[in-house]
Amino acid sequence: MDTTENFNNAISHLLRCPKCKSKLLYLEGCRGLKCPIHGIYPVIDEIPCFVQSNHPENINYHFDSHWDENITEQIPIQKQLVAQEFLKPLFDCINLQKPALLLDAGCGNGVHARVLSTQSWAKSSDFVGLDISLSALRSAARDLHKSSWKFVQGDLGELPFEDGQFDAAFSFGAIAYTDNPLNSFSELCRVTKKGGLVGVWIYPKTGGLMGVLFSTIRSLCQVTGSVGSRLIADCIVPFLGVLPTRSGINLANSTWKQCREVVLVNIAPDQLFFPTTSEVESWFSDYGLEIISQDDDNPITIWGKKL
Fold first, then answer.
1. Which of 87, 162, 186, 279 could lock onto 275 through a cystine, CB 3.0 to 4.6 A?
2. How many domains does the chain have?
3. What is the average pLDDT score of the chain?
4. CA-to-CA distance for 193 and 189, rounded, in angstroms?
5. Binning pLDDT at 50, 70 and 90, where does residue 147 land?
6. Residues 16 and 81 both lie in one domain
7. ∠ Cα 238 241 242 (to 5°)
8. What are 4's strand-pairing partners?
9. Is residue 156 located within the same domain as residue 53?
10. Which residues form the Methyltransferase type domain (predicted)?
11. In sequence order, what are the residues at sequence separation of 6 or more whose Cβ sits closer than 8 angstroms to the Cβ of residue 111?
């Protein structure tokens, strides 16, 4: 089976037009996916692409630039440990006796994919990683080309999937960068099967002196642009070991470039949403999810079961 046939059989049946949810016609030769209403979505390096605008003011342009400048061949062990902790409720609750279909919405360069790929039950399951950055997805696809992961470029606010497809859908941090976080959460719920799991990890609002300092740094980044943001990030990196960060990334366990990537993703984007715990809890109740796991010692970390 060649790569185009492999792509067609593995993922095209899951995909729908993100705007109208119409079925998509697969164009031979892996040339793209055609919606009868909204036209052709290209397939680039076997990755279906549903966000085509590359204007500097768009969020996908920002994150493509972010990953192009900061991506490294190795994902820090500390990042993988944080990912493993987040995924623990999934490991505990999912039915491992049958093949599962999982969605990582906002997968970046594939840290959760790496963790999941080490699980023995993963060999019989299928995984889809979605991100708005094609650069990040290309990196993840290179690292996991022999695994059961497939990747899609898309917007969390308009997921290009049919209703009720996934046994579990989760988003680690990415919802905070979307234009409408509540709508993005509703999309996770929409594509999850009844009885399936939905998980989110989001930074909460920070108060006190640290909150003021963080807001000031973000304001400086907006004024100084990408060059200024990198300089500010480089000034912060040496102090990660003593700052009250949630990731645990610092120069003792990661390289300078890896540390800078983590700093930049938190200070540079224009759009960044910080909810309260009660806000996120209300999302779960409003969309008919029973909370099955909640970690109050970390950033807002909640898993729920779709009733």
1. 279
2. 3
3. 87
4. 8
5. low
6. no
7. 100
8. none
9. no
10. 103-198
11. 75, 79, 80, 83
Q: Which amino acid is at 92?
A: D
Token duo for residue 41: 């979505």
Domain that holds residue 127: 67-204+274-306
Helices marked H in 144-286 — which ranges?
181-190, 208-236, 256-267, 277-286
Q: Which two tokens stand for residue 99?
A: 């093949």
Q: What is the CATH number of the domain that holds 16?
A: 2.20.25.10
Closest CA to 247 of 259, 255, 229, 256: 259
189 lies in the same domain as 297: yes
What is the end-to-end Cα distance of the chain in Å, rounded? 39
Structure letter (DSSP) for residue 134: H
CA 230 – CA 259 distance, rounded (Å): 12
Two tokens, residue 35: 């919606």
Per-residue pLDDT, 6: 47
- Look up residue 73 and give its two tokens: 């061949």
**Cα gap 47→146, rounded to integer Å:** 15
Same domain, 194 and 83: yes
Neighbours of 188 (CB within 10 A): 25
Q: Is the predicted pLDDT of residue 27 greater than 80, yes or no?
A: yes
Select from 15, 260, 261, 223 the least CA-distant residue to 136. Answer: 261
Cβ count within 10 A of residue 63: 23
Q: At a CB cut-off of 8 Å and minimum separation 6, what does 54 contact?
A: 60, 61, 64
Q: In whole angstroms, how far apart are CA 204 and each of 88, 136, 199, 241, 272?
A: 21, 25, 15, 21, 11
Phi, psi of 58 (to 5 degrees): -85, 150
SS3 290: strand
Residue whose tokens read 């059989």? 9
Q: Supply the pLDDT for residue 3.
A: 41
- Using a 10 angstrom Cβ sphere, with 0-12 exposed, 13-18 middle and 19 or more buried, the burial of residue 51 is buried
4 has pLDDT over 70: no
Tokens 């505990």 -> residue: 92
